[in-house]
Design goal:
Blueprint: E1 9-13, H1 20-30, E2 34-36, E3 40-41, E4 56-57, H2 60-68, E5 72-78, E6 81-86, H3 87-95, E7 99-103, H4 106-118, H5 120-125, E8 126-132, H6 136-146, H7 151-165, E9 173-176, H8 180-195
Parallel strand pairs: 1-7, 1-8, 2-7, 3-4, 8-9
Antiparallel strand pairs: 3-6, 5-6
Helix pairs in contact: 1-8, 6-7
Length: about 210
């Protein structure tokens, strides 16, 4: 009898505005066995967001105390607000043999890889994917179409995106963005292929199977 595969930690990173949150939402909806690590943030909730569901909303002092205590797997300041993933959000799920999806920026992905270098169990589970826009012009148009940011903010996001794009080679997989359905299908294919890898099986299949 073939055992269930070991759990996966799927990290998805992309420049702001590339559609990674939409891909994550679609992947979670289509994959019952996949759970999301909920990010902490110091920014205020937006309309329709709920604490403990969309984010863990922390005040700046609490966030700082938890950083000092070493509670975060990764954390960063992004456009004036702090974001981070608690170690418990990842390891509690991983220890329960559940697949985990992390939606983090390039800096966060680097921190996760650094933790994996110290933690063999995480290293064995880790799969990293970079979702890249087809071009900077395409990304600029997507940011403008969202209607959420001023031109100065968009310019700052694009400057950050250019630096992030230079780090694509640090990831296991590169997905060049097309339509939202194409992006979702490609990330689903990566997840499925990783689940089927022989090296993730906890024991060998029985003889004569």
């Amino acid at each position: 009898m073939i055992s269930s595969p070991m759990p996966i930690v799927l990290v998805l990173s992309a420049p702001s505005g590339s559609g990674k949150t939409t891909v994550c939402t679609g992947l979670l909806a289509a994959t019952p066995g996949l759970t999301r690590a909920i990010t902490c943030t110091t920014r205020p909730p937006r309309a329709g967001e709920h604490n403990g569901v969309d984010y863990h909303f922390l005040d700046p002092d609490t966030f700082a105390r938890r950083v000092s205590a070493g509670d975060f797997l990764e954390h960063a300041t992004v456009y004036g607000h702090r974001y981070g993933t608690l170690k418990t959000e990842l390891f509690d799920r991983l220890n329960a043999s559940r697949d985990v999806l992390l939606n983090v920026d390039v800096q966060g992905a680097a921190a996760v890889r650094a933790e994996a270098a110290r933690t063999p169990g995480l290293a064995a589970a880790l799969v990293t994917v970079f979702l890249a826009p087809a071009s900077i012009d395409t990304l600029a148009q997507r940011l403008r179409n969202r209607g959420q940011d001023s031109e100065s903010v968009i310019a700052r996001r694009l400057a950050t995106a250019r630096m992030e794009l230079e780090r694509w080679h640090e990831f296991d997989y590169l997905v060049v963005s097309g339509t939202m359905s194409e992006d979702l299908g490609r990330v689903q294919a990566i997840y499925t292929a990783e689940k089927l890898r022989c090296g993730r099986m906890l024991r060998a299949p029985a003889a004569g199977l």
